[in-house]
Design brief:
ModA/WtpA, D-Maltodextrin-Binding Protein, domain 2, ABC_trnspt_W-bd_WtpA, molybdate ion binding, 12 helices, Tungstate ABC transporter binding protein WtpA, tungstate binding, 5-stranded mixed β-sheet, 6-stranded mixed β-sheet
Length: 329
């Protein structure tokens, strides 16, 4: 009988004893794709969930809300949870069959928070000492004032910026607000039609800024660095984002800030038609409505049970009403 040296025997025992448990010690990666305005709250949610689940690594990747959905529907990525700033995007874009023929991308979602649009700025912004809740639209319309919005083709805050400025026209009885602040500075030309009480803004397939009056970024969260650097004077942002980043802001009337269910009938009088051709088969119209955040577990999520557990925990955390977070429903 051949006898192994003691040193080799010890190595063999260690290898055998560890071979069966390497898989069990590996962390489960939970991929979460949220709207950019959820990134700061989700840092806390991630920490709390991982503390209670030592074998889970929550990986968060923020995008504009439309881009969040397209990670699943267009790029065919397998993610565990999608969370957007406009609940209507989920049924409109995900209640449709997957290309693999395995049912819809999702068939349900959970709504969990609200927000409101504000005009954010800094101490260094032009006319920072002049702007008020009464004259904000006049200040933003001045030729030397630079305004930032997120891309309405990619981000809910972007098309909501168009809605807010259009709703402001009726509220302040000034039909030039949208064109002077945004419309006149976008190319190709943005078409605005009015039929009865409904105003429809039709965007070109590729929207670009013209001149230096308006700056466009892919998501509202990316406007923050422009504000900090003085690249824009004012940006249309969510209240929670402005507060979390210590920005000054102008609160807008509830009739136009998309925050109140009491004014839902007024909000829906503005429709933004997204010109992107890929949206044609799933509905390209975004209708004004109160801001509501929602999350869903895609049908092809790698870890659906764990994803639903994370979503339940997240919804519970938002329900506590933390400062600088979107408000609970």
């Amino acid at each position: 009988m051949r006898v192994l040296p003691l040193s080799l025997f010890i190595v063999a025992v260690v290898l055998i004893s560890t071979a069966g448990c390497t898989g069990g010690s590996e962390q489960v990666v939970l991929k979460v794709v949220p709207a950019g305005s959820l990134l700061i709250p989700l840092e806390s949610v991630e920490a709390g969930f991982e503390a209670a689940h030592s074998g889970v690594d929550v990986q968060i990747e923020g995008h504009g809300s439309i881009q969040c959905v397209r990670q699943v529907t267009d790029l065919h990525r397998e993610v565990d949870l999608v969370a957007v700033a406009d609940e209507s995007l989920i049924p409109d874009m995900m209640y449709r069959p997957m290309e693999e023929g395995q049912g819809n991308y999702t068939d349900s979602y959970t709504s969990f928070a609200t927000n409101r649009m504000v005009v954010a700025y800094t101490d260094a912004s032009r006319y920072a000492d002049e702007i008020t809740a009464e004259n904000w639209y006049e200040v933003l319309a001045r030729p030397d004032t630079v305004v930032g919005i997120s891309n309405p083709m990619l981000d809910a805050a972007g098309y909501r910026s168009l809605m807010v400025t259009t709703l402001a026209e009726d509220y302040y009885q000034d039909e030039t607000i949208f064109s002077h602040i945004l419309g006149d500075h976008l190319r190709p030309n943005v078409t605005v039609t009015r039929e009865g009480t409904t105003t429809t803004i039709v965007l070109p397939e590729v929207l670009k800024q013209e001149g230096g009056k308006v700056r466009i970024r892919d998501g509202s969260i990316y406007l923050l660095s422009l504000l900090d650097a003085g690249g824009v004077d004012y940006a249309f942002e969510y209240l929670s984002v402005a507060r979390a980043h210590g920005l000054r802001y102008v609160s807008l009337p509830p009739e136009i800030d998309l925050s109140s269910a009491d004014h839902a009938d007024n909000y829906r009088r503005v429709v933004v038609n997204l010109g992107f051709r890929r949206f044609a088969s799933i509905g390209s119209e975004r209708v004004g409505s109160p801001i509501v955040y929602a999350a869903t577990v895609p049908a092809n999520a790698p870890h659906p049970e764990l994803a639903r557990e994370f979503m339940d925990y997240m919804v519970g955390e938002f329900g506590k009403g933390y400062d600088d977070w979107p408000d609970p429903l």
